User: What shape does this take?
Amino acid sequence: MNPAAVGFQCPDDVAAGNAGVREPRRTGGLQRAGRRWGPVTLTLIGVNVAMFLLTAVLTGIGGQDPLQNYRTELFQDLAQVPLFVQMGDWWRPFTAAFLHYGVLHLGLNMLSLLVFGSELERLLGRGRYLTVYLVSIIGGAAAIQLLGAPFGQVAGASTAIYGLMGAYGVVLVHQKQDLRGLLTLLGINLVISFLPGVSLIGHLGGLVGGAAAAAVLVAARRRPPLAIAGIAALVVVLLALVYAGVG
Assistant: This one.
C-alpha cells in the first residue's frame, strides 16, 4: 500500500485505473503554428517565400546579385505587364501576386499577411478566407489592366493584402466593432502607395475586390448556394475586366 492524501492506495488498483487514461497527444511545432496563425496563411507565406528564393537563386546562377531577384528571366516572364497580358500572357495577373522585388518588399508584405491573414482566417474560416484572397488578386489585376501603364511592370502580394484589409473592415462593420484603428492603418498605407514605384491602382483594386468578396460571403453566410453564385458572378466580372482586349 502507498500513502495518499486520504488513506492508502493499492498499487495494483492505481495501475489498473491509469491504464484507461489516454496520454495527451503531442503535436509538432508546425501543427502548433498552424493552429495559431492559420494553415492557409502559412501556406500562402510559404509560396511567396519559395518564389522569392527561386528567383534569387536563378539570379545568382546568372552571375548577378541574388538580392536583385527581379533581374532573372523567370521574374520577367511572370510579372504583370498590361500589354503582355493583352497579347496573350494570361497567367501574369496571378503569378505576379507571388513575386517580390527584394527582401524588404517580401518581408513587409509577409508581415502584413501574417497579421491580417491569420485574423481573417480565424473569423471567416479557411475556404472563405482563401476565396477573399484570390478575388483580391483578381481585383487588383483588373485595376492594373484597365488603368495601369501598358508597359508598367507590377508584382507583389500587396493587392491581396489590401483586399484582406477591405474584407476585415466589412467583417468589423458586420460585427458592429470600432473601425478607427483599421481606417488609420489603411490611410497610412494608402499614403505610402503614392510613393514612386508603388502601385496605388493595384492596391485600390485589391481593396475593392476583397471588400466586395467579403460582403457577399457575410451577407449570404447562411445560404451557401447564394454565396457561391455571388462569388462566381464577381469573379466572372473581374476576369472579364482583366482580359478585356486580349487578342
Summary: The chain has twelve helices and two strands. The first helix runs from residue 11 to 18. The beta strands are 2-3, 8-9.
